[in-house]
Structure formats: structure tokens, C-alpha cells
Design a protein that fits this description.
mainly beta, OB fold (Dihydrolipoamide Acetyltransferase, E2P), 2 domains, five-stranded antiparallel sheet, 12 strands, about 10% helix, disordered C terminus, lipid biosynthesis, biotin, acetyl-CoA carboxylase activity, lipid metabolism
Length: about 160
Amino acid sequence: MELTPDDVRDVLRVLDSSGLAELHLELADLTVTVRREGSTGWTAEQQVLRAPRVEQAAAPATDTETAAPAAEVGEGLVAVHPPLLGTFYRAPQPGAPPFVDVGDVVDTETVVGIVETMKMMTPVHAGVRGTVVEFRIGNGEFADADAVLLVVEPAGEGGAGG
């Protein structure tokens, strides 16, 4: 089951009109906890369990196959996708340094950016150990759920590179 922005909006609307102080929602690839914090409104913690996918260079399509998507990355590189559609930010707040830059070494839990969807900030984790080689979506730009935010060159299994 996938939640659309309208689904999230409906859940938040029901929560606002209810007396509930907390909601914990777990789906196959998303965990969201929302708490009412007195007069300050709602706070949210979420973890999106979407693993990055390794994308290979496109092979020529045969007459029964369709071509690879335009957002492909080079062979053996990993494309980091947003957990949800929304506005991608490279830094935790305006004027702050970015979470990571090209050339930085990341591991699976490294936060590489945040995606804002309906005023909720969702951290984007690298999901892979390696080195950031390219950003495909700029700071403050909208990203569809299948967009490639950045590209990571995975670290070798044999211990070279970190």
C-alpha cells in the first residue's frame, strides 16, 4: 500500500479534529509517528524504509523490450531516490552547510538531505556506503518519488575506499 499526499492530508485532518495525542503508523516501507506537543502543535518522526537501487548502464533495447528510464546512472553506481515526493533540501535550514557534498564519503545511515512534503521534513539516507559523485536535483527543487537526487559510487567490498 502506498500513501498519496491526499491520504496523508486526510490522516492529519482526522488527527487534528480528534483527541488523540499520538499516532504510530507502520506500512511495509514507511514508519510514521506523529505526536501532539501541547500548544506548539504536532511533531513528527518518520523513517522511510526505501533501499537505494543499483542502476546499470542501459543495454540496447530489443524489439520486445522498452528502453531504460532517462534517469539512469552509470554502471555500478547507486541512485539515491527520495522517500516521498516533495521539495528536496541539501541543508537542514537556510544558510546552513549542506549535509553532504560531492566527494564526501557516506554510509547507509548518513543523512544526505531532507524532503519536505506537506510541511513534514523527511530525512533522506544514503542507503549505501560510498562516495557522493553527483547531485541530480538542486537545493529547493521539487523531486518526484522516482527522481534521482544524487549518485553514489559504492565502496568496494574488499576494504578499499573506506
